[in-house]
Design brief:
It is a multi-pass membrane protein. With 342 residues, the chain is mainly alpha-helical. It contains 13 helices and two strands. It has one domain: Formate dehydrogenase/DMSO reductase fold. The protein has a two-stranded antiparallel ribbon with strand order 1-2. The longest helix has 35 residues.
Length: 342
């Protein structure tokens, strides 16, 4: 495996980490209107991700920086062509982060309700648009001979991309609800299990449609890793059903773990369907960006590889330690007994 191919999979790994970790953050935020029946319940839901949401979000920064350094052509075409949706994602993430920090600054009910709505919006928009963006990347977009995106914003809202967007929205929602069930007690815990059961059917339908469409898309392109597309898609489907069944049986930890496997294998499926392209062109296959023509110079990739070998294990170790420290449930009694700003 050459260094350019290695970095394609490192970028994939970073996006896997981002979607697995920030994915359930989005789901927790989206679940707020359904599980936060009073202020204590809302604080209980929000506090499940309070210590970790900002750490989870750093994965997208590392992924973007790695993309810029390892595949500058891909980065330039992606960020110029997808400028508006990526800007909306950025604004939504800012909105969500500000809301987490400011909702407790006043005791006003309207003040808190306003920021709660912003948390929901700041979770829904990225969960949907990240899926739309990756759907377009996998399917291909209008790239000319100069590797410039020449399509408009509305051409990005095509059926396949929208299906992937709806699927990521529903997957992240279910992923977050399973995390709330794992991390809470009392009424919120019971409501989270019921909500996971209600979300099961539409999530399974959307996910199955995405897996099948992605497989046939990759098959039509004669993707060299079609076996991985099929395998990852099958594992994602089985683990999604397993997560739902385990949740219904009250095995919260196992259900959330199965949800992690679902998101992980779904992202692997998308990258396997994309390989060896990084952005296929729908105008002419010869205009497509590939791993070979979009990567940095070998010397740059060598330096980055050594940096990644040192930095990535440290990042993973620190994040693992953080989750271990904050592993306990967020109980209703701990919220009721805490100051109002908690």
């Amino acid at each position: 495996m050459d260094l350019a191919t290695l970095w394609f999979w490192i970028v994939a790994f970073l996006f896997v980490g981002y979607f697995v970790l920030d994915g359930f953050d989005f789901g927790v935020g989206m679940s707020l209107p359904f599980l936060g029946k009073d202020d204590v319940s809302r604080r209980q839901v929000i506090n499940t991700i309070g210590p970790v949401w900002d750490l989870n979000e750093t994965w997208v920064i590392v992924a973007g920086a790695s993309l810029f350094a390892s595949f500058p052509e891909w980065y330039a075409t992606l960020f110029s062509g997808f400028y508006l949706p990526l800007l909306l994602i950025l604004l939504a993430l800012i909105l969500r982060g500000v809301s987490f920090e400011y909702r407790h600054q006043r005791e006003s009910r309207k003040w808190k309700q306003g920021f709660d709505r912003m948390i929901v919006i700041g979770s829904v928009v990225p969960a949907l648009l990240w899926g739309v963006a990756f759907g377009n990347i996998v399917q291909g977009v209008a790239i000319d001979e100069n590797h410039i995106y020449v399509g408009g914003f509305f051409s990005l809202l095509n059926p396949y991309a929208l299906l992937v967007g709806v699927t990521t929205l529903l997957l992240f929602f279910l992923h977050g609800v399973l995390f709330v069930a794992l991390k809470t007690d009392g009424q919120v815990h019971a409501d989270a299990r019921k909500l996971a059961a209600r979300a099961a059917v539409p999530t399974v339908i959307a996910a199955a449609a995405t897996v099948l469409w992605t497989y046939f898309l990759a098959a039509g392109r004669e993707a060299p890793l079609l076996w991985l597309v099929a395998g990852a898609g099958a594992i994602a489907a089985v683990s999604l059903i397993a997560a739902i069944v385990l949740s219904l049986r009250g095995r919260d930890g196992q259900a959330f773990t199965a949800g992690i496997v679902t998101v992980l294998t779904a992202v692997v499926m998308l990258f396997a369907a994309l390989f060896p392209f990084v952005m296929p062109s729908t105008i002419d296959p010869a205009f497509s960006l590939t791993i070979a023509n979009a990567s940095s110079a070998p010397y740059t990739l060598q330096i980055m590889t050594w940096t990644a070998l040192i930095a990535l294990p440290l990042v993973i170790a620190y994040q693992t330690w953080t989750y271990w420290v904050f592993r306990k449930r967020v109980t209703r009694s701990s919220i009721e007994g805490a100051p109002a700003h908690a």
